[in-house]
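Dear colleague,

Thank you for sharing your sequence with our group. We've completed the structure prediction you requested, and as agreed, I am returning the results in plain text so they can be pasted directly into your records. Please verify that the sequence below matches your submission; if there's any discrepancy, let me know and we will rerun it promptly.
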Amino acid sequence: MSVDSAAEFGEKGTADRGRDRSGTADRDRLFRRVARGERRRASGFDISTGRCAGVVARLLNRRVRDTPLRFDVMYFRRPERDADGRWNCRWIERYDMTDSAGCRKEDDREPAHFQFNMRYLRSWLWRGIRHPLFKASWRSAFPDMPGSPMITHVERLFDVLGLDTALRDRLLTDEANEAADGLYALVERTTGVVIPAAVDTRITVIIQNDSTLTVRVEPLPGDGTAYRSRNGHERYLDEHGEWTQNQLLTDIDRWSRELARHIRESDESPRYASLRVAVKELKERTRNDDEANQWND
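Please find the predicted structure tokens below.
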């Protein structure tokens, strides 16, 4: 099955294989209508292991080809030190976002090393801790003029990087042998936005009214076998469904004693000696990361 098959795009039973692949027929084959809102349609594809950046770019640009937006797909560079101890890139950065007034700004809600950190990015994307979203609109500069240039406007950003920042810090590369494992950078050249993506995530494109486009990166839906909490919270409810405190306070007291015991064991028991070494090494590595990336917060 080719990478352009209907199943690849998550569309089952909707493709008319006898229709022309260009224009409206191709658009209809890739997109499905979105129930909420008027004139909204969505299309998505999954990034599987081993997929090269060129294929991801082709799949993405097929979905945006009726818009003035154009994407390049690159890799995030794998952080390495040379013989002189210098890093080949700066892999900790703050994300860009839009504030409540719709203005583009640097995200200062969290310390930088909790935001874009290339060493942990794939896991954060896969677990849904980061939610990259890019929304842009466009209009004709001269509505009455055939072939008028288009004006593009950023409507909303969340957990994305600015292209100037990514280029300044050498975060991007076209070479697969220089790439961080399983990470991709969706680079929208018109607006200068870099959307992080990873293997085992899904890229969804939503077009509304033929004048607004949203791209978001989400974890793949689970298959129902993933771990789910079974905390038995219903035992804290009375017969009327109201919270009661007696059993809750009893459990909190028991949990506190157990936690104190585990903390003592982790600090003293030979059983956790290797864990204490690992924690010490992780603290040192984090300190070195912060120094290498010149963060003081």
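Summary note from our side: Confidence is low (pLDDT under 50) at residues 1-22, 224-229.

Kind regards,
the structure core
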